[in-house]
Design a protein that fits this description.
Elements (H helix, E strand, L loop, with lengths): L11 E11 L2 E4 L6 E7 L4 E8 L3 E14 L9 E6 L6 E7 L10 H6 L11 E4 L1 E11 L3 E10 L7 E5 L7 E12 L5 H22 L1
Antiparallel strand pairs: 1-2, 1-5, 3-4, 4-10, 5-9, 6-8, 6-11, 7-9, 10-12, 11-12
């Protein structure tokens, strides 16, 4: 007789908890504007979460992710390891610590993120424990600028800087957290448009001069 293994006991990446801290405001499930989760698959706990800002100002954005890598035979939520790889880009910092299920007391990793404090990195590798990972962006947005931040979760290693959570020796599962930021100009006419505006003004001036003559 064949006995099927319940899905909860199969090897899987489970997003146990997550939230974002934007300038002291907490955004959690379900995420709403300014967040876009259309490219994130909550079934596999992988994909891209995008957040967009257009108002001038100084920002900090922290993405907190508490994954549970559930794998037989241990199938425990508190036996994972984490580490980091790569060089940090400007404005990006990282942290690894105990998840909120394990420690949410004042001064804990979880509590510091809730309160928007510096992440402080961590001893790497970290674990085995109930691991949580976080990435933080600090940046200033000027007038006519737009910032797009991507928080990316994958089971394969990306390029650049990333955080890595892994389950050994049970399932051999891996999950990688990385992020990027792109700041672009908005509301600024293209050079060709400026040329057309200039030509139009010159034409209007010419016509008015002829009429007066």
């Amino acid at each position: 007789m064949t006995i099927a293994v319940p899905s909860a006991l199969a090897d899987e990446i489970v997003l146990g908890d997550y939230f974002f801290n934007v300038n002291g405001s907490i955004f959690n499930d379900p995420l709403s504007s300014p967040f876009d989760t259309s490219l994130f698959d909550y079934t596999t706990s992988q994909g891209i979460i995008k957040v967009t800002f257009t108002n001038p100002g100084t920002y900090f954005v922290i993405g907190y992710f508490d994954f549970d890598l559930m794998g037989m035979p241990n199938n425990a939520w508190d036996d994972d390891h984490s580490d980091q790889t790569g060089s940090l880009g400007s404005g990006l910092s990282w942290g690894i610590g105990l998840g909120g299920w394990a420690d949410s007391d004042p001064g804990s990793f979880y509590d510091n993120i809730i309160n928007g404090l510096a992440l402080g990195n961590a001893t790497s590798p970290f674990g085995p424990s109930d691991n949580a990972m976080a990435l933080r962006w600090d940046f200033t947005l000027n007038a006519n600028e737009k910032a797009e931040l991507l928080f990316m979760v994958d089971s394969s290693a990306p390029g650049g800087f990333y955080l890595h959570q892994f389950d050994v020796p049970d399932s051999g599962l891996d999950v990688y957290l990385s992020s990027s930021m792109n700041i672009t100009q908005t509301g600024v006419p293209e050079p060709g448009s400026l040329l057309l505006v200039g030509s139009g003004l010159a034409f209007v001036t010419f016509v008015r001069t002829r009429m007066r003559g």
